[in-house]
Amino acid sequence: MGFNKKLLRARLENAAITFVNTLLQAFHKSKAERTGEKIDTDAMELTFEDHFDGDTLNTDIWRAHNAFGVRKGGFWSGSQLRVENSNLIITTEYLENGEFGPAWYTSGIETEDRFEQAFGYFECRCIPAKGQGLWSAFWMMNANVHNVTGHSRNGAEIDIFESPFWFRGENKRNRVTLNLHYNGYGLHTRYKNVGIFQLDNDPYENYNTYGVKWTPDAYTFYINGYPVAKTSWGGVSQKPEYLILSCEVDGGDAIPTRGWSGYIERNDKKTFKAEFKVDYVRAYRFR
User: Fold this and answer.
1) Overall number of domains in the chain
2) What value does the mean pLDDT take over residues 136-164?
3) Which of 147, 256, 265, 274 could form a disulfide with 251 if both were Cys (CB 3.0 to 4.6 A apart)?
């Protein structure tokens, strides 16, 4: 077997991310309190909404994120998407006869070239997929996040929520993490953990809302309509960004590895199936 640079890089990155998040779990976590001023969407203009009614994904507003194929420790495939009971469902599972061969499969979709907006309030209501070695996310970005500029005013990855903590056990899994990235994903990448927040319910069994109010001066993150964190780190993005819903498998070059979400190979390949359920996605602009 030849030397796999992509896999080695993924393992090193995952080891670093796991180490950092272990520290963050200990020192940078808070409760998602239902305090502060609740977001008032009635004072805003609705610009985007999908309740996933019907029985097919609306491809007028959604498309595959980064095309289907190799994605981290598995593959993204359109076969792992369905619309059912007014929910988008992204399924993660091991397929012996998957379209790219035996492997772990999941998926991700985006609104690039269909809906992009600078500033406003962006929210989804969902239940993340539960299981070891994977995580669900609602996030935003644009192509400029890959450019090295020294700041993120030309574009950032805004992780409105990510859910990698299921494997940490009953007392630690009911948390989500909020993050920002810019300067691409190489040696010059910049990253900030905005916070890790423990919910007052089990997010893997209950619907919760995750949102961000994005102004020219700051990002304010919300859980269930209440503010939990505010930051202008890196210089707030001033460019339109698109929406992304996804599930990820820890690893690289379609080979699973241990990472911040655990190790997916510890699940039973024959029976394991995890579902990321999204009730709705909405976007608003300020009047």
Assistant:
1) 1
2) 96
3) 256
pLDDT reading at 269 higher than 60: yes
Domain that holds residue 25: 5-168+175-286
38-53: average pLDDT: 97
- CA separation for the pair 248, 42 (Å, rounded): 34
Write out the H or E segment, with its range, that includes residue 278. Answer: strand 273-286
Pair 225, 39: CB distance under 8 Å: yes
Q: CATH number for the domain including 52?
A: 2.60.120.200
- Residue 9, H or E segment: helix 5-27
Whether the pLDDT of residue 2 is over 80: the answer is no
pTM over 0.85: yes
- 258-to-19, 72, 76, 107, 139 alpha-carbon distances in Å: 12, 12, 19, 19, 23
